[in-house]
């Protein structure tokens, strides 16, 4: 059984409903959904629709139902539509001007595979402050669009992208806040298989949108983080936690000095423009 952590989030990778081929996954939807990018079963069998027990105010509109065990379920059709929208948006930019960020270990393998597939810049592990804002930084880069795997872990990249007016596309679960996120893709961003599927779909659809004859050579399995011996038990105990202090329940970003909860967006950021998260 999965263990509940102090934020009331569930390590969704360990929820039994996510095991491929189970009938329980299909019970999370009341009737078959029409998905265009991949078969609906691929979303269900990877647990892409499984959120946490906590839901932020920003994410309520993306929640399809609440299961009897308290887990929030995302709408698979919405997942499919938002991935398609994000891919169309990212395809507009030169490949090398798209940066994909992932601090959490489960997201690093799919982020790297995604970057290799479309020619993007990948930034995994600790995000060095100044990467987007300080030309003297050793990893300084000037992307035109940034993709983050989990806003709770990749907060530094979001802050810097906002400061220099770069649009942020984020994979978000039910516990995430959407402050300074320009395009939200609601999906299970905690599971290995769901992250692999999300980045594989994005890569596939971006290459299709470019229409230059390039096809995705990698399979979904190539995007999946491979567990090391003993790592699964460690993950079940909830050892992979953000190192930054001040996170509220459900992964909300910490308050800045002098600002209350739910304060205004930072001035000058791309997110001052009309939101892409209104549908």
UniProtKB/TrEMBL annotation:
<feature type="compositionally biased region" description="Basic and acidic residues">
    <location>
        <begin position="228"/>
        <end position="246"/>
    </location>
</feature>
<keyword id="KW-0687">Ribonucleoprotein</keyword>
<dbReference type="InterPro" id="IPR005707">
    <property type="entry name" value="Ribosomal_uS2_euk/arc"/>
</dbReference>
<dbReference type="GO" id="GO:0006412">
    <property type="term" value="P:translation"/>
</dbReference>
<dbReference type="GO" id="GO:0015935">
    <property type="term" value="C:small ribosomal subunit"/>
</dbReference>
<dbReference type="InterPro" id="IPR023591">
    <property type="entry name" value="Ribosomal_uS2_flav_dom_sf"/>
</dbReference>
<keyword id="KW-0689">Ribosomal protein</keyword>
<feature type="region of interest" description="Disordered">
    <location>
        <begin position="228"/>
        <end position="279"/>
    </location>
</feature>
<dbReference type="GO" id="GO:0003735">
    <property type="term" value="F:structural constituent of ribosome"/>
</dbReference>
<dbReference type="InterPro" id="IPR001865">
    <property type="entry name" value="Ribosomal_uS2"/>
</dbReference>
<dbReference type="Pfam" id="PF00318">
    <property type="entry name" value="Ribosomal_S2"/>
</dbReference>
<protein>
    <recommendedName>
        <fullName>Small ribosomal subunit protein uS2</fullName>
    </recommendedName>
</protein>
<dbReference type="InterPro" id="IPR018130">
    <property type="entry name" value="Ribosomal_uS2_CS"/>
</dbReference>
<comment type="similarity">
    <text>Belongs to the universal ribosomal protein uS2 family.</text>
</comment>
<feature type="region of interest" description="Disordered">
    <location>
        <begin position="1"/>
        <end position="30"/>
    </location>
</feature>
